[in-house]
Amino acid sequence: MSRLKALLRPIYAPILRPLRRRADLEAERGRIRDEILQCQRAGKAVKIIIGAGQTRYPGWIATDMPAFDALNRKHWERLFPPQSLDRVLAEHVFEHLRPDQLGAFLAIAADYLAPGGRIRIAVPDGSHPDPAYIQRVKPGGSGVGADDHKVLYTGESLGKALRDSGYQYRLLEHFDAAGNFQRRAWQAEDGFVQRSAEHDRRNAGGQLNYTSVIVDCWR
Predict the structure, then answer these.
(1) CA dihedral sign of residues 160, 162, 168, 169
(2) Of 28, 47, 36, 111, nearest to 76 (Cα)?
(3) Which of 4, 12, 145, 149 sits most deeply, having the most CB atoms within 10 A of its CB?
(4) What does the pLDDT look like over 107-166, one tens digit per residue?
């Protein structure tokens, strides 16, 4: 029997592989829907992480490709009831997308934010005064993942993109055009950003070696 299975494997493996992938995707989507339902039943805020990878925070629902494509409206429809999301966190996601794709995301997300809901976005800071930092994070730069970066935002350019999409916003951390670091107090429970002035270990000793443009936005 084992020899027969070995002989048949080249035939049935290509058939079973996509079925298994589809089953895995549906299981992941089911997990997301279940966690949302649990939050709603418990009267808790629904908080999701976009492009989570391996990131997991208590009280937050992790989402990532391919189970959830944040540019695909049908994926949103499958997973989230309209006006159901209280907080959305996207840390170092949108530098991997074109500006028009950020606009597409914002247009879709607006339909799923609950009243008073917020999106917290963090991206590399194009106004950081350290040339070595810019070299690491610019499109095609030397840093991990920078070969896939499509855009390098500043606080000003990200703010303009949000305004153009009909959002109000508040910059929480960024370097201004003069190279001065600007910071407002923000709460981690509204979206923890690891690549930030206080929380990135590369900033030990008070040197701002690695920071982000961090912004809250809402409709």
Answers:
(1) negative
(2) 111
(3) 149
(4) 999 999 999 999 999 999 999 999 999 999 999 999 999 999 999 999 999 999 999 999
Residue 123 backbone dihedrals phi, psi, to 5 degrees: -140, 160
Both structure tokens of 17: 């592989």
* Dihedral sign from CA coordinates of 113, 118, 123, 127: positive
Cα R_g (the chain), whole angstroms: 20
**Residue with tokens 């961090």, as numbered in its chain:** 214
47-80 pLDDT per residue, tens: 999 999 999 999 999 999 999 999 999 999 999 9
CA angle 109, 154, 108 (to 5 degrees): 10
Task: Give residues with Cβ within 8 angstroms of 92, minimum separation 6.
Answer: 51, 122, 123, 124, 195, 212
- Provide the CA 78 distance to its chain's centre, in angstroms: 19
